[in-house]
Amino acid sequence: MTDDTGLTNGHCGPVPEALQTLAEYLEQSLDKATSIVMMRHSDGVCTVYLGDPSGQREDLRQIASIDVSLINGMLESTRSGANQMTIGGQEYRFVRSFSAVGDTAAIVFSTD
């Protein structure tokens, strides 16, 4: 955690690691004008991609592998559908949805 006071939805306090990580991925998705796609391929690890979840799996660009506990923190701190929150002093608007890429379930964060 960091001591940054810009937590979600106007609450002050330290920013959880899960939201710091989500903010980093949101910035990357904004830079690339694409979505964040997270898929769990093993019990404890989730793979993070940038790309269009409705396109071909081969077109997704892998950017990270993170512990499932971070994903769980992201899911607990956000809701399905439209989200608006401040993380570390930066305002973010995004949509969290669920999809399937091929035969694998995926969590999708879209900023458009």
Would you mind describing this structure in some detail?
There is one protein chain. With 112 residues, the chain is an alpha+beta fold. It has a single domain (8-110), classed as Beta-Lactamase. The chain is built from 2 helices and 6 strands. Strand 1 and strand 2 form a beta hairpin. The longest helix is centred in the first third of the chain and has 16 residues, at 17-32. The relative contact order is 0.24. Mean pLDDT is 88; it is low at 1-9.
Write the layout of secondary structure elements.
Blueprint lengths: L16 H16 L2 E6 L4 E7 L9 E7 H10 L3 E7 L2 E12 L2 E7 L2
Antiparallel strand pairs: 1-2, 1-6, 2-3, 4-5, 5-6
Helix pairs in contact: 1-2
| Average pLDDT rating | 88
Q: Give the total of beta strands.
A: 6
Q: How many helices in DSSP terms?
A: 2
> Do you know the CATH topology?
Beta-Lactamase
The dominant shape is globular
Pairing-aware structural class of the strands and helices? alpha+beta
| Oligomeric assembly | single chain
Strand order, main sheet: write it out: 3-2-1-6-5-4
C-alpha termini separation: 28 Å
Report low-confidence residues grouped into runs of 5 or more: 1-9
**Beta strand %:** 35-45%
CATH class assignment: Alpha Beta
What is the string of SSEs from the N terminus onward?
A: HEEEHEEE
Provide a compact summary of the structure.
By secondary structure, this protein is α+β, with helices and mostly antiparallel strands. 23% of the residues lie in helices and 41% in strands. The protein has helices at residues 17-32, 68-77, and strands spanning 35-40, 45-51, 61-67, 81-87, 90-101, 104-110.
